[in-house]
Design brief:
This protein is α+β, with helices and mostly antiparallel strands. The chain is built from 16 helices and 18 strands. An 8-stranded antiparallel beta sheet has the order 14-11-13-12-16-17-15-18. Strands 4-5-9-7-8 form a 5-stranded antiparallel beta sheet. Strands 1-3-2 form a 3-stranded parallel beta sheet, covered by helices on one side. A hairpin with a 4-residue loop joins strand 4 and strand 5. Helix 1 packs across helix 9 and helix 12 runs antiparallel to helix 13.
Length: about 475
């Protein structure tokens, strides 16, 4: 009967699971011996690595590179999925130029060096009764890298990480140090906040901070149809809202989070989440080889624990950050105007329905919301935005990019802009049409790096027409 068939399928899956368990671990071990980006797609092979520990050393490196025709690429935590930080010549790491410089409690400003991780910034602030009002899902990123790529958290009333910046200090391609804010070098400020590593080395930042807080997170699961019907109320009903959409079940996990002074009470322990990480990785690996089984397996996972409900109170690092149970995987991420959200979701469902027999949809689609800003190359420039993160685990290369390209086209039809640190396919001409301040950015770039010290394959593709 049906029960016997399901039992047989489970036993077969268990055997394959045991056999396959060593494969992702082996891949991760060998990749750890070299420098790769987080996903493992791009290897870093610089001709030279510099780890300066002072502004003077940074300036000297850039001045010499400018005079000798060499190129420099600044590298932070290597968390980008794209090749934005892959060096061709000199790799300049800010790992030795990190740390909190000053916390001004009266003005609620914190000064940090560019190589400081978001996690370290928050920990230092919390010790002084302060925090930042938003964080992305991963806080091991450096602050310079996070703002340079337009990295964001979620909350329709909150901008991306670059909107926290009150002042930026940056060293240009010829070694000149500039300070920029809303009043001094204001055009440079709007260009450099999401600067893609194309304008200079970010040495220091002053960030706005707020009194420390905890977050009350309520997790519910609702049908996709209900989510679409009540989308506006859901997104605007809490400080921070994100959605995890699971295709096979057509269910949405809704994370509704508000700032609170309640005491911390986190339901799931770190041990619990680490165990989930390994179990879920093996399940994903099986699904990647057997796409036709994905629906049945995801249904079981969701029924057991995959889309859970809950009610937690925790610190920003505990609640904003996702647990580390997602193994390395390719990602595509696009922003669209908020009022196009439902149409993009419907288009995504249609694409997945058409391709479900040839590709395993073994990860959820994450949907987050970001307030508009006036930063020139920010994906949220001049529009409240919805960000769609499309992720797959261990997909076949033969169908991965076909699927990603269809998802990108679906977003582009509604004014989509790519996340600079993720996979995207547009040309310079296509992107220029979507960013009203593109030419202004290019003028600042020409002024700050006339010798084109900051270049790699990514920047040459993006700014093709301007390279000599």
């Amino acid at each position: 009967g049906r029960g016997r068939a399901e039992g047989k399928m489970i036993r077969k899956a268990a055997l394959v699971l045991l056999f396959a368990a060593a494969i992702p671990l082996s891949i991760r071990y060998f990749r750890s011996l070299s420098l790769f980006n987080w996903e493992g797609r791009f290897e870093f092979r610089p001709r030279e690595i510099q780890r300066p520990s002072s502004k003077q050393q940074i300036s000297d490196i850039l001045r010499e590179a400018s005079q000798t025709g060499r190129s420099v690429t600044v590298v932070g935590s290597r968390h980008s999925w794209s090749d934005i930080a892959v060096p061709e010549d000199i790799m300049l790491s800010l790992e030795n130029y990190a740390g909190v410089v000053n916390i001004d409690k009266a003005s609620k400003l914190v000064t940090v060096r560019g190589g400081t991780t978001l996690e370290d910034i928050v920990i230092s602030l919390e010790a002084e009764g302060l925090s930042v009002d938003q964080l992305p899902s991963v806080s091991t990123q450096t602050i310079a890298g996070a703002i340079a790529t337009g990295t964001h958290g979620t909350g329709i009333g909150y901008g991306n990480m670059a909107t926290l910046v009150a002042e930026i200090e940056i060293i240009s391609g010829n070694g000149t140090l500039y300070r920029a804010n809303e009043h001094e070098n204001s055009d440079m400020f709007k260009a450099a906040l999401v600067g893609l590593g194309a304008l200079g080395v970010i040495t220091e930042l002053k960030l706005h901070c707020v009194p420390a807080f905890n977050l009350h997170e309520v997790i519910t699961v609702i049908p996709l149809s209900d989510c679409l019907d009540r989308l506006d109320d859901i997104v605007k009903g809490s400080d921070h809202v994100k959605l995890w959409f699971e295709f096979h079940s057509r269910k949405v996990q809704v994370y509704s989070t508000n700032k609170t002074l309640e005491q911390r009470r986190v339901v799931f322990s770190r041990l619990h989440l680490n165990l989930e990480f390994h179990v879920f990785e093996y399940i994903q690996y099986i699904m990647s080889w057997f796409p036709s089984l994905s629906g049945a397996i995801m249904s079981v996972v969701i029924g057991l624990n995959g889309l859970r409900t809950g009610d937690n109170v925790g610190s920003p690092l505990e609640v904003f950050n996702i647990p580390h149970y997602l193994p390395p995987h390719p990602e595509l991420e696009y922003s669209v105007p908020f009022n196009a959200t439902a149409d993009v979701i419907r288009g995504l469902v249609s694409i997945k329905e058409e391709m479900k027999d040839e590709i395993s949809f073994n990860l959820v689609t994450e949907i987050r919301f970001v307030k508009h800003d006036d930063i020139w190359l920010s994906p949220a420039y001049d529009q409240d935005s919805t960000f769609f993160t499309i992720a797959l685990y261990n997909p076949s290369e033969s169908v991965l990019h076909r699927f990603f390209k269809r998802c990108a086209d679906n977003a582009i039809q509604h004014g989509g802009r790519p996340h600079w640190g993720k996979t995207f396919y547009e040309t310079e001409t296509e992107l220029r049409a979507r960013y009203p301040k593109w030419d202004d950015f290019m003028a600042i770039r020409e002024m700050m790096d006339p010798d084109q010290v900051f270049k790699n394959a990514y920047l040459r593709r993006l700014f093709h027409s301007s390279f000599k």
